[in-house]
Write a structure and sequence with these properties.
It contains 13 helices and 16 strands. It is of the alpha/beta class. The strands form two sheets. A nine-stranded mixed sheet has the order 14-13-12-11-7-10-9-8-16. This is Glucose-6-phosphate dehydrogenase.
């Protein structure tokens, strides 16, 4: 199948039921069930939800579990909304490697019409479930939604696509990257394309460098066996971070639909150079190997910092610095766009030079945008001072919906905008393939730091602009 035919059309069927495989798992408890609660509260969840898992639960047990999961995530949850959500839930218990489970599922969804099957299960089970759905005749009038990661390198992604395509064609196969459902990530494109204030400077003539940071202050915790087989590059760089890069670097789409958007994202990824091992630093936080499920001599990276270039007319020569890691100083996902300095120094001679303007986009947590401008302080000696100017999205715009709200609504309503196209996935794997599983062990770093010291010495990097714990807190992020 040609890659350029594998863009999911934007006019997908609406589902009459949602089947959630792995409904008793960690992802469902922390993310999916709270998202379903918010969709219920807004009146957007209009279909029944059938859970599938091997726990032996009945409907009552699932409903009790869902209530507990929602209350943990939403302490002020409305009891009437919880009741409405619970009324939509039902359970099919059984081993997903047993065809009898799918016989029971066929009975559970009989009469519902079009069904969306959401796989919140380990990737190794994607093909198993898809094949079993086909054997039970459940792949007709249906679509399959699979979680990330989609493969573990270019070859395995291609193989997985080929296998799943035996049971679901490209119009009925959706691949989740929950950053696509983030309002703040989508807001990057709105900020760029809806404001002529920013459009003229979004160009190599004005931008010196771009920094994308996805930092987590916590470690791997109880996910040792999963994380050790994946690592930082596969877990967040190949998908989430390159997704942010596309939103920052892409050209405006020609139409307001998911196919046009997907084409522009693919174009910018095709122009992005593969990651150079010489421009990449891998790290592993001290104590990682003592975590249950982690191999004693593990060389899995929990941190990565790298430099890439987008070789097109707009961005030629502008470095994009990407870094992510566990057990770092703060939890924050932030973009910093550093603008070029004025061509002539007029005001900062006494202080060693005027700092460059930077624009910060916080795309997770306390989302917002903050520009750091230079202004003259009254009664000062003429030296400019940095003054932050910005917008706290939640304060100004209200509650930001959870990314999985958009993902689950897209899965049921038939909106492909919140899912990754296979051609862009293949480009992403191409970009990261050279830095996957290198023979050199990762560098150690102390928990609570900003990673290995070598990451501050990436080629061409003058300094990392560190995120503060909060975008609009008292701490300076400079």
């Amino acid at each position: 199948m040609r890659e350029d035919t594998q863009y999911t059309p934007f006019d997908l069927e609406r589902a009459d039921a949602l089947v959630l495989f792995g409904i008793t798992g960690d992802l469902a408890r922390k993310m999916l069930l709270p998202a379903l609660y918010h969709l219920t509260a807004r009146g957007d969840l209009t279909v029944p939800v059938v859970g599938v898992a091997s726990t032996g639960w009945d409907d009552a047990a699932l409903r009790a579990h869902a209530r507990q999961a929602v209350v943990e995530a939403v302490p002020d949850a409305d009891p009437s909304v919880l009741d409405r959500l619970a009324d939509r839930l039902s359970m099919v218990s059984g081993d997903i490697t047993d065809d009898a489970t799918f016989t029971g599922l066929r009975t559970a969804v009989e009469g519902y019409g079009f069904v969306a099957y959401y796989l919140a299960v380990p990737p190794k089970l994607f093909t198993t479930v898809a094949a079993a759905l086909a054997r039970a005749g459940l792949n007709r009038q249906a679509r399959l939604v699979v979680e990330k990661p989609f493969g573990h390198d270019s070859a395995s992604a291609r193989e997985l696509q080929d296998e799943l395509s035996r049971y679901f064609d490209s119009a009925h196969l959706l691949r989740v990257d929950h950053f696509l459902g983030s309002e703040a990530v989508e807001g990057l494109m709105v900020g760029r394309f809806a404001n002529t204030l920013l459009a003229p400077i979004w160009h190599r003539s004005y931008v010196d460098n771009v920094q994308i940071t996805l930092a987590e202050s916590f470690g791997v915790a109880d996910r040792g066996s999963f994380y050790d087989a994946v690592g930082c590059v596969r877990d967040v760089v190949q998908n989430h971070m390159l997704e942010i890069l596309t939103c920052l670097a892409m050209e405006p789409p020609s139409a307001d639909d998911s196919s046009a958007l997907g084409l522009e994202k693919r174009r910018v990824l095709r122009a992005t150079r593969t990651m150079d091992p010489a421009d990449t630093v891998r790290g592993q936080y001290e104590g990682y190997r003592e975590i249950e499920g982690v191999a004693p001599g593990s060389t899995t990276e929990t941190y990565v910092a790298t430099r890439v270039f987008v070789d097109n007319w707009r961005w030629s020569g502008v470095p994009f610095y990407l870094r992510s890691g566990k057990a770092l100083a703060v939890t924050a996902t932030e973009v910093v766009v550093e603008l070029r300095k004025p061509p002539l120094e007029l005001f900062g001679e006494k202080s060693g030079g005027t700092p460059a303007n930077i624009i910060r986009f916080r795309v997770d947590g306390d989302t917002g945008i903050r520009a750091e401008l230079m202004l003259r302080k009254p009664d000062a000696d003429g030296t400019p001072v940095t003054v932050p100017v910005g917008i706290d999205f939640e304060r100004v715009l209200g509650r930001q919906q959870l990314p999985y709200e958009a993902v689950l609504l897209g899965a049921t309503a038939g909106n492909a905008e919140y899912f990754a196209f296979f051609p862009t996935i293949m480009e992403s794997w191409r970009i990261v393939d050279p830095v996957l599983d290198p023979p050199e062990p990762p560098l150690p770093y102390a928990p609570g730091s900003w990673g290995p010291a070598d990451s501050a010495r990436l080629p061409g990097l003058r300094q990392w602009h560190q995120p503060s714990p909060r975008l609009f807190g008292d701490e300076s992020g400079g």
